[in-house]
Amino acid sequence: xxxxxxxxxxxxxxxxxxxxxxxxxxxxxxxxxxxxxxxxxxxxxxxxxxxxxxxxxxxxxxxxxxxxxxxxxxxxxxxxxxxxxxxxxxxxxxxxxxxxxxxxxxxxxxxxxxxxxxxxxxxxxxxxxxxxxxxxxxxxxxxxxxxxxxxxxxxxxxxxxxxxxxxxxxxxxxxxxxxxxxxxxxxxxxxxxxxxxxxxxxxxxxxxxxxxxxxxxxxxxxxxxxxxxxxxxxx
Amino acid sequence: xxxxxxxxxxxxxxxxxxxxxxxxxxxxxxxxxxxxxxxxxxxxxxxxxxxxxxxxxxxxxxxxxxxxxxxxxxxxxxxxxxxxxxxxxxxxxxxxxxxxxxxxxxxxxxxxxxxxxxxxxxxxxxxxxxxxxxxxxxxxxxxxxxxxxxxxxxxxxxxxxxxxxxxxxxxxxxxxxxxxxxxxxxxxxxxxxxxxxxxxxxxxxxxxxxxxxxxxxxxxxxxxxxxxxxxxxxx
Amino acid sequence: xxxxxxxxxxxxxxxxxxxxxxxxxxxxxxxxxxxxxxxxxxxxxxxxxxxxxxxxxxxxxxxxxxxxxxxxxxxxxxxxxxxxxxxxxxxxxxxxxxxxxxxxxxxxxxxxxxxxxxxxxxxxxxxxxxxxxxxxxxxxxxxxxxxxxxxxxxxxxxxxxxxxxxxxxxxxxxxxxxxxxxxxxxxxxxxxxxxxxxxxxxxxxxxxxxxxxxxxx
Amino acid sequence: xxxxxxxxxxxxxxxxxxxxxxxxxxxxxxxxxxxxxxxxxxxxxxxxxxxxxxxxxxxxxxxxxxxxxxxxxxxxxxxxxxxxxxxxxxxxxxxxxxxxxxxxxxxxxxxxxxxxxxxxxxxxxxxxxxxxxxxxxxxxxxxxxxxxxxxxxxxxxxxxxxxxxxxxxxxxxxxxxxxxxxxxxxxxxxxxxxxxxxxxxxxxxxxxxxxxxxxxx
Lengths: 235, 235, 217, 217
Hints:
heterotetramer, A: 235 residues, Glutaconate Coenzyme A-transferase, three-stranded antiparallel sheet, 11 strands, globular, C: 217 residues, alpha/beta, 17% helix, 27% strand
């Protein structure tokens, strides 16, 4: 077996350097690689191009790397709820490339699966399609989109084993498996790190072959962005 | 919840008609929809175009539909180990379209995911690429391949629930999930059919949205094509 | 005239048995509260759940279980979780039967604008462009006019588009309108709203044929 | 001169620690029996398993657990199962480091033919075209000559191609050869085999530089 365990987030983020393109799993604040983000902040790596569905919030998630101005460019589908982001974007410090969410997902998956380009209907007729090849399939126009290329992917899983196999929980799965496939070096932080053979091989979401480094996250705050509840009726 | 249960293989194959293009999951004889194949044989549907990685063996799997000359054309990656197949192919009764296995898989997946076409390196420079668009990505030539379109997909799963969620076992997974995504009508036969809520929603390989009909297979022979073993040493 | 719940309730009448449905943020989310009796539907949220249930009871929120609006939710029996590529595969592959979303503008040929106002902070399209480019059956839930009283049902969208010729139906506080042949066809009036009121509030080409019934709830 | 096991054993020396490896049917399968000490590798089979183990003990065969050659196998601790699209994603995406497969012909610029003989029953390419089009490191295991004694290492392939310019190394019963710059470069001789013997058996351009060492086992 090929083992992937590294000691901690600091060791796991070794090699990230200024100007790199890196991916971060997560949707909103759900399933984000908190420990890797903290380590990258500590490393002070600058001029990062970050591929991530969202850009965190003020003081949490990728908001932490925005605060320290480590991010040069965000490639995302939605970047609201972040004052620091807005400030830097308006001042021109921060570049932003907005991409339809499904296209973002598929461009990650394609990168991992050796598919350099594919056609999708999303964005046809909008500014997203500007400069892109259009082709009709089954009477419907589609645009050509390309796979990403990222030096690192930072993902967060629920359970992982020493071989790098990953299992995600609930909707914290989201972009994590796709980015795990896409990164040249994929770093997975997990809540539970178990010996090989502990996980059901039928239930693994991402086989270890896609993961170069795995570590147990020191802590997971798992902040909730929109706490919505039903009130229990007192009878 | 939307329930998908039908009574048996006969009911599940309702609507299949002469000349249709249909998919069959499985790799070799592993994970094939035995009960649906038997029902289609009983129905006597003719002139089928079958998309399946292999074509069964004499007397089992799709070999059963070859025997009764129900298949007009096979779209496969490998069709060995089948005398009836060879006879019909040589006599010109049976058309065969051979496709690289990874391309076959991706064309199924693309069909299910609304991706009409994609580029792959497989087959470039070979007769598979004849007449296909070639484009260079990252210095490497790729060819354009298109999504399939199949009226029915017949798949076999290990466990399924009334909502149509599927879980596969071992390497019996193979093409089954991809074809489940691709079929306009997807028919799943399962070894165990359980109530909704019995399966861990994290462990479901194919969400029920892709499955239109599900039934518990009456019996599964699960024939082994190449029984290879180690002998236990007597000490 | 309808309130937000009224709009949601009227849209819920568009649900058909065995529909998989994606509900956008805002009014569309409320549609889940008005599923007609005898109708079984399942809700998909594009961040990776099918079989989405109501908000959790207080104290039972799970940070790993949210919808596309980042709200804490629950999963019903028969639910499944999946990654974002499979989620949008369901959407692009037209396995999801109906999409309900909000809009800033809709044009008489079904164009929709709902993601960007030039000069204002642009937050992004999220999954909206994938949804509108894919679904067969797209229903827009919105107010008939904007805060300045200007019609949002236009000959052409003035804002950057989210999708082209994709909206099939619009439900507002005033009316239900079908889009076909390059015009808004008035199908129903909200209770107490006159055809004249709707005509005045609709800038795009409006076709009114015969008696227009009031919505029934 | 090597037998099949010898070829497999020599190829096993090409394995590096932490390699994910795909082994084709035939001689390549035997490579798994000769993993050098201290080297950790994992075997992928393209029908959907990573962490493939040896054949099962008699009586423990599982019809749901086979390799790409349709043989019953086992799964090692740390193994995972996946569908065919993910499997070929691993392959095309170059996550698999080394592929070993058989061939009917190899040309001096690395073309490979191994799936079709015109006039004979064609069984199909299976996963071979995906494998050879994708892997960085493709090693061919084959006999140097065919049954008629004709060289299988050619200036150009005469049979329909499986892939273009992709083979990096060939290991036969006679020699180890590297392909670069449009020629076979002789790296090693099999025990007891002379350079002249290899020259005679190689129809393609063969480069022999300096003393050619004998293989070491």
